[in-house]
Each structure stands twice: as structure tokens, then as C-alpha cells.
């Protein structure tokens, strides 16, 4: 993929000053300051939304930074640069390399595969313990980083099951992030994908740094390539040794129908009339343009127009519903649209409250009578008003998209 250098202009209608920005070398050249790999590592950790994840694999969107310097291979003193996990339990491992490293191409790919193999040998408890080592935090740093310190038990259980599934199946997103990705790195990834079908996704992300005339810098993350995921091959975790075996397995029929049947069977145990009501609600949500996805629960999303998505609603098989994470994209959008949506939902529901604090603007949620877990029957009773709130949010997002396009 070819990219030009960005321009700095003084206004949008008739710019009188057009200044090409200068790409900043990672090494020190001509008296200019350089930077190290830990700059990229730090930027990813404090602002994981800068990564164009949706363009690589939409299943991994809404990643939360969990830790840096994850000790996966302590026997050789190696640490994964960044670990990110989303609320569905999807895992992303990142290795940052600068183009000034002459051995970056082959080494970074080998390291990433090594880390994935080591990660696949862990269960949830083992991963949690490694993250405790990296962060120095007690408790469960995975739950705290991904869901917040006040996560309810149902969401916590869903996250734990999702992480366990990702570890067991080896379904991870492996990213190589650099200031300048060499063509040889792309060829190596292509070659690897041709020789063996892996159960994880590779992505190459370039994060060039540009200097502005006013002494500040702009970082422009962009996707160079991603692999197509083929899951005929899985990693088998060895429990008593460092070797990693790769075993070819037969393709299975898609599991979506079975997962759907299991979800509605469990939901019917709560109340026999709920399955039909929820199916009808899901159809109405799809008609609104929502993306409806089933993992352990139904997650309902709206595209935000920036390559991300907003989680407007989640429905659990135990007769529960959640209005969390809608504010996670307010920062990139530049408007508190998610928060406005949650405030409207809180107004609709009897006993509803908008819960959060200004120190964590991405973690606002709706509670009813102080409880973060909502009764699904309450949602169904007020579904017309709730759907209207979702439609209003959709319209605001579309209006914002039109403003950006003009």
C-alpha cells in the first residue's frame, strides 16, 4: 500500500499556507531527535484505539490495553511488547520494531510466533499471573483493564470464558508495528501463511512519525497488510515441555446455528416466552442497521464511521441485558454521542441512572436501582423507546459522517 506524506494547512476553505510534514527518522539524523521502540509501545498502551483494528479483523475491535512487557518466555528473558484484550475475550499480541534494527524482519516474526506458542500453553489463571508480574497489580488485572473495577459477575464470567476460548484455540491477533515496515517482512508473512494455515491473524501496522513546524509530532497508524484466517490448523499446547506441535484437523460445519440454539435454550429456562420476544427484538435491531453478533451473549453494534463501532446493547442468555461501553468511542468521535445515548436509556428505564465519572470518560454505563445488570424483561417492556434511542444515535453518527465528508 502506497501513502503520500500528510500536509499541514491553515484553513479548510482557502488555505494560504500548505506545509508538507517531514517524516521523522527513528535514528538521529542531521541533528534531529530520534526515538526508540518504547515510544510505539507507549502510544499503543495509552491509546489502543489508534490501531486500525477494524481494517484488519473486526472481531478484535474495542481492544483494551492490559499490560506492556508481558513475561511469556522468562527462560530467555523475552517479553511481549503489548497485550490487548477486548470484552469478548479476544487477545492481541504486539511486537514493536524500528527499521533501524537490521535483524527486525526475521527476528520479530519468530518472536511473535514464539510468544503465541507460549501464550497458548496458559489458561486464564496462568495469563492473569503473568500480567500480575508485568503490572505489579494484585487482584485480577485482566478484568480491571478490560471491564473496569466494578464489572458485574455475568460480564466477568463472559470475559473469562472468552479468554479461555482464545487461549485454547490459539485464535489471536498478532501485530507487527513499526515506524517503517520493510517489504521483506511482508514477504515473510506471506510465505508463512502459504506454508501453514494458522489459527490466528497476522497484521502489519506502520506508525510513521511526522514533525510539524510548531515543534509537535503527528503519528499516522496505517495497515499495510493482513492475513486471511484459515482454521484448518490449530496449535496444540504442550503442558510438559517447550515444544509446539501443529496438527491438521478436519473442517467442521459452521457452529453459529448450534450456538444460537444453545443461547435460546438457556434463555427459555428463564422464561419460555423470552426466546420469541428476543428473536423479534434482534430482527428489529437488524432493521435499524445494527450489527448483531453472538458469542456467549448477543452484542449489538453501530458503526461509528471512523472504522470502529459502538456497543449499544448486550443480551445474555440468563435473562440479562447490559448498556455498557457505548462511550468508548466518544473520544475519537469528538462528541459525547455515546454518553448522550446512555443518558436517554437511563431516562427511559424506571429507576435508571447514568453511572460513571469524568476521570474515566469511556466507562459510563446505565444502572437500574444501582445494579449494572439489567433485567431483560424491563428492556423488552420499553423496547420501542430504547430502539428509538438507538435510531437517534445512528442518525447522529450518520450526520457526523456527512459533516466529515463535506
Keywords:
24% strand, 5-stranded antiparallel β-sheet, 13 helices, 6-stranded mixed β-sheet, alpha+beta
* Contiguous uncertain segments of 5+ residues: 28-32, 228-257
Helix content: 25-40%
Widest sheet: strand order?
Answer: 4-5-6-7-8-11
Number of helices: 13
Largest sheet: 6 strands, mixed
- Shape descriptor reads globular
Number of strands: 20
Task: Compute the separation of the termini in Å.
Answer: 25 Å
Structural class: alpha+beta
Average pLDDT over all residues: 79
Name the beta content range.
15-25%
Query: How many domains in all?
Result: 2
> Which value, in Å, is the CA radius of gyration?
23 Å
What do you see in this structure?
This protein is of the alpha+beta class. The protein folds into 2 domains: 242 residues, no CATH class; 150 residues, no CATH class. Helices cover 38% and strands 24% of the residues. The relative contact order is 0.10. About 9% of the residues have low confidence.
Task: Produce the secondary structure layout.
Elements: E1 7-9, E2 18-20, E3 22-24, H1 37-46, H2 53-56, E4 64-73, E5 78-85, E6 91-97, H3 104-120, H4 124-135, H5 141-147, H6 153-169, E7 172-178, H7 183-195, E8 201-206, E9 209-211, E10 217-219, E11 222-226, E12 233-236, E13 245-248, H8 256-270, H9 274-287, E14 291-294, E15 298-303, E16 309-315, E17 320-322, H10 330-333, H11 337-348, E18 352-355, E19 365-368, E20 374-375, H12 376-381, H13 383-405
Parallel strand pairs: 6-7, 7-8
Antiparallel strand pairs: 1-2, 3-9, 4-5, 5-6, 8-11, 9-10, 12-13, 14-15, 15-16, 16-17, 17-20, 18-19
Amino acid at each position: 500500500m502506497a501513502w503520500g506524506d500528510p500536509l499541514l494547512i491553515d484553513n479548510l476553505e482557502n488555505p494560504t499556507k500548505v506545509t508538507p510534514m517531514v517524516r521523522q527518522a527513528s535514528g538521529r539524523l542531521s541533528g534531529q531527535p530520534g526515538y526508540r521502540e518504547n515510544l510505539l509501545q507507549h502510544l499503543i498502551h495509552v491509546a489502543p484505539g489508534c490501531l486500525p483494528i477494524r481494517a484488519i479483523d473486526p472481531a478484535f475491535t474495542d481492544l483494551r490495553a492490559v499490560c506492556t512487557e508481558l513475561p511469556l518466555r522468562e527462560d530467555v528473558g523475552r517479553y511481549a511488547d503489548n497485550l490487548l484484550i477486548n470484552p469478548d475475550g479476544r487477545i492481541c499480541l504486539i511486537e514493536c520494531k524500528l527499521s533501524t534494527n537490521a535483524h527486525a524482519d526475521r527476528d520479530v516474526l519468530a518472536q511473535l510466533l514464539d510468544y503465541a506458542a507460549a501464550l497458548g500453553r496458559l489458561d486464564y489463571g496462568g495469563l492473569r499471573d503473568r500480567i500480575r508480574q508485568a503490572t505489579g497489580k494484585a487482584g485480577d488485572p485482566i478484568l480491571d483493564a478490560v471491564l473496569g473495577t466494578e464489572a458485574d459477575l455475568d460480564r466477568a464470567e463472559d470475559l473469562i470464558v472468552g479468554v479461555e476460548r482464545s487461549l485454547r484455540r490459539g485464535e489471536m491477533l498478532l501485530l507487527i508495528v513499526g515506524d517503517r515496515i520493510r517489504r521483506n517482512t511482508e514477504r515473510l508473512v506471506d510465505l508463512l501463511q502459504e506454508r501453514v494455515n494458522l489459527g490466528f491473524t497476522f497484521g502489519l501496522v506502520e506508525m510513521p512519525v511526522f514533525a510539524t513546524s510548531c515543534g509537535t509530532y503527528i503519528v499516522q497508524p496505517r495497515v499495510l497488510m493482513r492475513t486471511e484466517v484459515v482454521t484448518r490448523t490449530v496449535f496444540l499446547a504442550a503442558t510438559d515441555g517447550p515444544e509446539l506441535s501443529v496438527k491438521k484437523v478436519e473442517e467442521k460445519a459452521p457452529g453459529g446455528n448450534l450456538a444460537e440454539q444453545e443461547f435460546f435454550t438457556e434463555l427459555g429456562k428463564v422464561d419460555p416466552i423470552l426466546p420469541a420476544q428476543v428473536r423479534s427484538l434482534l430482527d428489529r435491531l437488524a432493521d435499524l442497521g445494527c450489527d448483531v453478533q453472538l458469542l456467549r451473549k448477543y452484542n449489538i453494534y453501530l458503526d461509528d464511521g471512523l472504522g470502529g463501532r459502538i456497543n449499544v446493547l448486550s443480551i445474555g442468555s440468563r435473562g440479562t441485558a447490559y448498556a455498557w461501553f457505548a462511550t468508548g468511542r466518544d473520544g475519537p468521535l469528538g462528541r459525547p454521542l455515546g454518553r448522550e445515548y446512555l443518558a436517554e436509556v437511563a431516562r427511559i428505564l424506571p429507576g435508571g441512572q447514568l453511572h460513571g465519572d469524568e476521570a474515566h470518560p469511556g466507562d459510563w454505563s446505565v444502572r437500574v436501582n444501582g445494579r449494572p445488570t439489567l433485567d431483560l424483561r424491563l428492556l423488552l417492556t420499553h423496547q420501542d423507546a430504547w430502539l428509538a434511542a438507538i435510531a437517534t444515535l445512528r442518525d447522529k453518527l450518520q450526520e457526523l459522517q456527512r459533516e466529515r465528508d463535506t
